[in-house]
Amino acid sequence: MSIESRSAVGEELDGELASLLEVERFEAPAKFREHALLSDPGVYDHAAADPVGWWEAQAQELEWFQKWTTVLDDSDPPFYKWFTGGTLNVSYNCLDRHVIAGRGDRVAFHWRGEEGEERDLTYAELLSEVERFASALKELGVSAGDVVGIYLPMIPEVVVAMLACARIGAPHNVVFGGFSAEAVRERMEFSEAKVLITVDGAARKGKTAAVKDRVDEVMGDLASLERIVVVKSKGTACQMQEGRDVYYEDILAAADPVCPAEPLDAEHPLYILYTSGSTAKPKGILHTTGGYLTGVAATHRYVFDLKPDSDVYWCAADVGWVTGHSYIVYGPLCNGATSVMWEGAPDYPSKDIWWEIVERYGVTILYCAPTAIRACIKWGAQWPNKHDLSSLRLLGSVGEPINPKAWLWYHKVIGAERCPIVDTWWQTETGAIMISPLPGITATKPGSATQPFPGVFAEVRDESTGEPIEEGQGLLVLTHPWPSMLRTLYKEEERFIETYFKRFGTETYLVGDAARRDRDGYIWVIGRIDDVVNVSGHRLSTAEVESAIVAHTDVAEAAVIGQHDEDSGQAIVAFVTLQGELQGDDSTVEGIRETVAERIGKFARPKRIIWTEDLPKTRSGKIMRRLLRDIADGRALGDVTTLRDPAVMQQLEAQVKELSAREE
Ligand code: WT7
What we know:
Blueprint: H1 3-21, H2 30-35, H3 42-49, H4 51-59, E1 70-73, E2 81-84, E3 87-88, H5 90-100, E4 107-112, E5 118-122, H6 123-139, E6 148-150, H7 156-168, E7 172-174, H8 181-191, E8 195-199, E9 201-204, E10 207-210, H9 212-219, E11 227-231, E12 245-247, H10 248-254, E13 264-265, E14 269-275, E15 283-288, H11 290-303, E16 312-315, H12 322-334, E17 338-342, H13 353-361, E18 365-368, H14 370-379, H15 382-385, E19 394-398, H16 404-414, E20 421-424, E21 458-461, E22 472-478, E23 488-489, H17 493-500, E24 509-517, E25 523-528, E26 532-535, E27 538-541, H18 542-549, E28 555-565, E29 569-578, H19 586-599, E30 608-611, H20 625-632, H21 647-663
Helix pairs in contact: 3-4, 5-6, 5-7, 5-12, 6-7, 6-10, 8-9, 11-12, 14-16
The structure holds 5'-O-[(S)-butoxy(hydroxy)phosphoryl]adenosine.
């Protein structure tokens, strides 16, 4: 099938379904609504009438060493402060509090390894390990304000490391395990990390990937980095540099078992998380303590209708993304939830591993990405059908728009039409879920994230006039500050203002997504308006991938676009011009893909590479990506008269046709 017909079929089917479904609404079953934590729609009006009071009530649910004097300090927008004067500790809220209240024996995580290994960690056990590791970090010279890098796979130690940092006020900078060592190095450099916590090796579908050795190859000359802590996870042999490297297990054994949680200012930085923006340089999103925890705890409780005494909750994301930070670690632990943590991929050891896990641990709430659901659809219903999934009562979706076809499959095959689906829209920047149904209140429409969470205010603005749109498409904005919002971009204050608060002023947060508001006021998020591509829920900037591609010695120039893709939502397509008279062949393609894997990570490799002698540019030399997107999607070309050399487009069209013919 050609590129154009392939994407068209997926879109058409969903398009037809979407128009059918836009009028149909799905109500939660009466039994669900009856027992839901929130079932009175009045909560929306109540929060809208007094958002600051509503958030203050949510903050009351946390344990504070000292209460705040001001809920919201909005005297210097866009630099908002929440709960000023208050002190608290995130790790105390996630651990000590539950142990003190007699819930120490409750399982915090049912951890499951790739080869079927199992480890249950109770709240008391987690606290004890966190206290020891926090002591050990202090011994290594880490104190409040020092940045600690974390590059770990989905093993319990990653949670311990994050909470130990939070305990002593050392902001962590977690890098997703799928990023390459080069990408880790860059993030350590930007954040001037003092310590990096990593692992000997990581499980990858039955194989072990050497992690520490790869880290060593690139990290050597980083001036700020004083120590590397290595978790012995897979027993992979690795080089340890005298005076710099220590084993996690060794320092843990020697550490003081007592390490009281530090009372920290509500605005003390909790973490930095790098995410992609419009330029090649990733943005360091900074989150702080009191507001962030208030936001993630409240949304986790109400969006997932969490009953901590009986629920088994599973967020099947990776802890290295914001979803993992907010909804594997901080939200669930703060709420005293019992969670599942799965080390591996959804198709290893076999394609029913997710459903085996649901059955085995009696998972009641499942939270995952549409891309995973689409993979399951492709593998077939026989895999989930092999298992008893009757424990499930609520399903969640996150990371990209969920197409109606995937929504319906999730609803029918996984949820047996019994489980409400919460399609949650948010971002690394927002810290917590912003737009989502409340499962006991909101009637859902497949593909719509529905309504802002109580206390959150969203609008769709007209692109040209900037006026709010009642019904129709435009730019999504958030019009009031919220507690878990990013506070700045780490060490890039100007960029923070420029990116989010320039277009509509310092009191209106520009999201970077296009959205549609339908006649019932439901919000349908469409996708990014900037040069950010969403591949399987992984956020990538086209500039970042381009700069990785041009690092290949044969490449002269590259332009990257996101193309609609049935499996991954969007796929990376690269238009590449080679140096001089070089001709691209299969081995050049592999070489380029390899360079991208080394610079960023395997998940960023282009799916398709299209050779071109030149790129479509305006007379001022700007690459016209719109035309590249038209060509890749097989659309009729728009206006080409502003091009420096319109002939480029004919040559490109021919290239794309040839490539499509070869792919058939
Ligand atoms: C971007 C944020 C939210 C945690 C994971 C991704 C897209 C996210 C949805 C959704 C439509 C969504 C947006 C957003 N997105 N959730 N439910 N429906 N689009 O975090 O990497 O910061 O990416 O993901 O485009 O801006 P992120």
